[in-house]
Amino acid sequence: MKDYATQGVAAETVPVGNTSDVVLARQMVRNLAQRSGLSLVHQTKLVTAASELGRNMLVYGGGGVVRAAAVTDAGRTGIFVEFQDEGPGIPDLELALTDGWTSGNGMGLGLSGAKRLVDEFDLRSGPEGTTVSIVKWSR
What we know:
A five-stranded antiparallel beta sheet has the order 1-2-3-5-4, covered by helices on one side. The longest helix has 22 residues, at 40-61. The protein is α+β, with helices and mostly antiparallel strands. Helix 1 (19-35) runs antiparallel to helix 2 (40-61). The chain has a single domain (11-137), classed as Heat Shock Protein 90, CATH 3.30.565. Helix content is 37%, strand content 29%. A hairpin with a 2-residue loop joins strand 4 (120-126) and strand 5 (129-137).
């Protein structure tokens, strides 16, 4: 995935420390998607992915920061969203991306489901925390 976070793209930011903040992050992503002209279907997919990833960041990473921005590449427009925490990291990325696997009481569709809903997905994790970056392109 292209590193949109370091390309001078003006991003909106929401710190996430509780469930209400996850709702604010969802609203930020939805507003950006609407302003950028994403279809209702693509808005819904992006917001659903953002909700899952924001919730995971809160539950498993202890909270963090959500950054989102409208981006362009090769003549197309999309929304880039980054979820960054300073939690313990994900010990087994392959397992964590497996449908049905969960380290908690959820359905195990958070990471894998979010990945299917977006066009680009990047997951980096280690003892210093986890960063998930996604992009949904308009069609």
